[in-house]
Design a protein that fits this description.
The complex is a heterodimer of chains A (about 100) and B (about 80). Chain A has about 100 residues and is of the alpha+beta class. Chain A contains five helices and four strands, in the order αβαβαββαα. Chain B is globular, with a radius of gyration of 12 Å. Chain B has a single domain, classed as GMP Synthetase, Chain A, domain 3 (2-Layer Sandwich), CATH 3.30.300. Classes of the chains: A alpha+beta (about 100), B alpha+beta (about 80). At the A-B interface, strand 4 and helix 4 of A face helix 2 and strand 3 of B.
């Protein structure tokens, strides 16, 4: 399976997926850390994919949603945004509503 | 080392902005506030993609992190009146 197909399978078979640097317990970047904190604040159950553990995913995920940075949040197969957008949606309450329905 | 001013000019070369402010002095981490009529009618994801598009390959090579807030001119005006 090629990288794009692997990503598609991951984001469509799991309701909430966060591509991040490091793990939720040990984030390797401030933005990834912020993303996990926001998801925790929403009580979201999510699958975390550490892009540092897989170079093909690390590059492939940037093409998948035409988004050059990490973290990236996917809900029900749809790209939601990076850390800035997650923060803005959390502050407006939009993210909590989206995740509660996922 | 990439300066905030340079980054600002990279963005404005490809995206017409009513207002832009880029901060950051370590050469790799930046914060930006960008107001552009091109954001009109676009989702936040699409707005950020326009900025990433303006930066192109530099986003992969030179810039490690760009935190941004994007606004349409109308939204920007509303925020500044408050």
């Amino acid at each position: 399976m090629d990288t794009q197909a692997r990503i598609k399978e991951t984001v469509t078979t799991n309701n909430i997926v966060l591509y991040m640097k490091g793990s939720p317990k040990f984030p390797q970047c401030g933005f990834s850390n912020l993303a996990t904190q926001i998801l925790d604040a929403c009580d979201a159950k999510y699958v975390a994919v550490d892009v540092l553990a897989d170079q093909e995913i690390r590059e492939g995920i940037k093409q998948y949603a035409n988004w050059p940075t990490i973290p990236q949040l996917y809900v029900k197969g749809e790209f939601v945004g990076g850390a800035d957008i997650m923060r803005a949606m959390y502050e407006s309450g939009e993210l909590q509503a989206m995740l509660a329905g996922a | 080392m990439l300066s905030a001013k340079q980054l600002e000019s990279y963005i404005t070369q490809h995206l017409s902005c009513d207002f832009i402010e880029v901060l950051g002095d370590d050469g790799t981490h930046f914060e930006a506030v960008i107001v552009s009529p091109a954001f009109e009618g676009k989702s936040m994801v699409q707005q950020h993609q326009l900025v990433y598009g303006a930066l192109g390959e530099r986003m992969r090579a030179e810039i490690h992190a760009l935190s941004m807030k994007t606004y349409t001119p109308q939204k920007w005006q509303e925020l500044n009146i408050k």
